[in-house]
Amino acid sequence: MSRRRQIYEGKAKILYEGPEPGTLIQYFKDDATAFNAQKRGTISGKGVINNRISEHVFTALASIGVPTHFIRRLNMREQLIRQVEIIPIEVVVRNVAAGSLSKRLGIEEGTQLPRTIIEYYYKDDALGDPMIADEHIACFGWATQDEMNDIADMAIRVNDFLSGMFAAIGIRLIDFKLEFGRVWDGDYSRVILADEISPDGCRLWDMKTNQKLDKDRFRQDLGGVEEAYQEVARRLGLLQPDDEFAVLDLDTHRKKRGK
Ligand code: TMP
Q1: Statement: the pTM of the whole predicted model exceeds 0.70
Q2: Which first-to-last residue range defines the signal peptide (predicted)?
């Protein structure tokens, strides 16, 4: 690995200085955490798959006019991205009740919601990412009202697009999390989609069997975690049926050679 400056290390990714000003390299790890890092583990090959899935999804979103930080994939685990000022808000979009919504409000998991819900959480590990309302965002100046309007519009567009994209491959998009960042052009800033979109931050259920194809398999110790991530990549056409072990093996070999 070349010596380059590490900018930030998160739970699933590392950010390095990019080759040009205003760019970063986003490295996808196999590390997985849940419940605010109280549960930790490794999902073998996850970084490779999430890098590919996120590339695929961000490229598709760009093609319908949703601005994103993605520039291009560099290798198995890295992509070049635009540097943004991360807005400290996790935007969760829900189509079907699951996870914390089911727990908090006692709504049975799998209940189709009569309308899509957007929720906001303050991105702060020490506080456990508490849920917040628009009022808190305005009061503490985490984003302007114009930025929040853009964010909500983009979240709905992403939801509509991804719901269709996954439905076409027999997957129901239950819910997902987005993050946004600010980019500056002189005195003006605009908001673009940042972070990643992968089975780490989405709930994806097989349409026929309701089988979970996402990080809930890790959170809930359901087994078959690696296979679930591979299945999503395979259905998206990113892994050939016999390719998955080749792809993962290649990555393991590279690591062993210290590249
Ligand atoms: P939740 O039901 O636990 O609130 O999660 C909603 C969605 O957001 C789910 O698809 C998983 C994703 N998510 C993250 O990506 N990161 C997080 O820290 C949390 C809590 C959820």
Answers
A1: yes
A2: none
